[in-house]
Design brief:
Length: 360
């Protein structure tokens, strides 16, 4: 069996060790004679798996006790709706920063439910930088201030976070959660779809300060009410049990790697190799301001677009998969999340160098 290097933006590569463990436990989990998929979510075995996953995540991210950790369904996109429903009334002010495709989607959904203000945007330069927080036109009475720390499609990332004062800072961290340490106490809420850096699709994490929940507006669907989920330990209904279990295996893998400090160091090394190669080449280019380049998603273009198909074909033949850029931006994109080993980045650079030499 050969494992290819999968550069997909999501659902993304998972650590081989985690998949091997899941394989070994697939038919008979720890001598119980059944798969985790077949267990009652209310049974003692799965409750243990669920609790351990939460405990490991709290330890990895150093999540303070006054934050709820929710294991939900519906993807990050559902949180675009759940967030205003839980934290704001129909006419309440909510502030958003626009740094790319995912911010725009969050803004569009919230605009149906609250008084949205776009307090800063880098749309004018094609999202090549993160607007300087000192210039944001924020409102002191906003219910929250929403940011997207890592724009998965544009490859744009924050390198520091604003001081939001008393306004809770909310972050859609779908594509960079667990890639480096973060001070959770600076945020009111952090959410992320699992399929980039946590586990398989179908699971969504919400980490929210408990004093912010419990006031969901009238008419909020019960499945979107954070307080209901918190009270039921994310088991108001049947949770995505297998995805929760796999996320737990990923958390344990991260702890074995040395935690988020160690991952950050590895991620910085991987990204800096790839960006340096792109910058030194006259054939490949990345448009993002170097200070705001994502460590997780590296978009790049070829000097001649008509070579794109040949580039992708050659890559696939070498086991370098899913390098095609998002349809909205074109070109290429290499997503190099936690599970992408450094050798995968080396193999990509090696291929890119050879391609340039031959065709450039
Ligand atoms: C992938 C992604 C989403 C959408 O996630 P779904 O789980 O598919 O809803 C939202 N925001 C960001 C930053 C993403 O990368």
């Amino acid at each position: 069996m050969t494992r290819a290097y999968n550069f997909c933006a999501g659902p993304a590569a998972l650590p081989a060790e985690v998949l091997e463990q899941a394989r070994d436990e697939m038919l008979d989990w720890q001598g119980r004679g059944l798969s985790v998929m077949e267990m009652s979510h209310r049974g003692e075995a799965f409750m243990g798996i669920a609790e351990q996953a939460e405990k490991d995540l709290r330890e990895l991210m150093n999540i303070p006790d006054d934050y709820a950790v929710l294991f939900l369904q519906g993807g990050a996109s559902s949180q675009f709706s759940a967030l205003p429903l839980n934290l704001a009334g129909p006419n309440d002010p909510v502030d958003y920063v626009n740094t790319g495709v995912w911010s725009r989607k969050a803004i569009a959904e919230a605009a149906r439910m609250a008084d949205v203000k776009e307090v800063a945007s880098s749309e004018a330069d094609g999202y090549a930088h993160v607007p300087d927080p000192s210039q944001w036109q924020t409102r002191d009475n906003a219910r929250y201030l929403h940011i997207t720390p890592n724009e998965t499609i544009g490859g744009l990332a924050y390198n520091r976070f604003p001081e939001a004062g008393n306004v809770p800072l909310v972050a859609d961290w779908s594509s960079a959660i667990l890639s480096e340490p973060v001070d959770v106490s600076r945020f009111g809420m952090i959410y992320a779809g699992a399929q980039k850096n946590i586990g398989p699709a179908g699971l969504t994490l919400v980490i929210v300060r408990r004093d912010l929940i419990g006031n969901a507006r009238e008419g909020t669907p019960v499945m979107m009410d954070y307080a209901v989920a918190d009270k039921a330990d994310s088991m108001y209904n049947t949770p995505p049990t297998y995805a929760w279990y796999l996320a737990g295996l990923v958390f344990q893998w991260l702890k074995r790697q040395g935690g988020l400090e160690a991952m950050a160091e590895r991620n910085r090394r991987k990204a800096s190799k790839l960006y340096s190669f792109i910058d030194e080449s006259a054939f490949y280019a990345n448009p993002v301001n170097p200070e705001n380049r994502s460590l997780m998603n590296v978009p790049f273009t070829l000097a001649d677009d008509s070579l794109n198909a040949a580039f992708l074909e050659g890559a696939e033949a070498r086991g370098l998969l899913n390098l095609k850029g998002h349809r909205s931006v074109g070109g290429m994109r290499a997503s190099i999340y936690n599970a992408m080993p450094e050798e995968g980045v080396d193999a990509l650079i090696d291929y890119m160098a050879g391609f340039e030499k031959e065709k450039g």
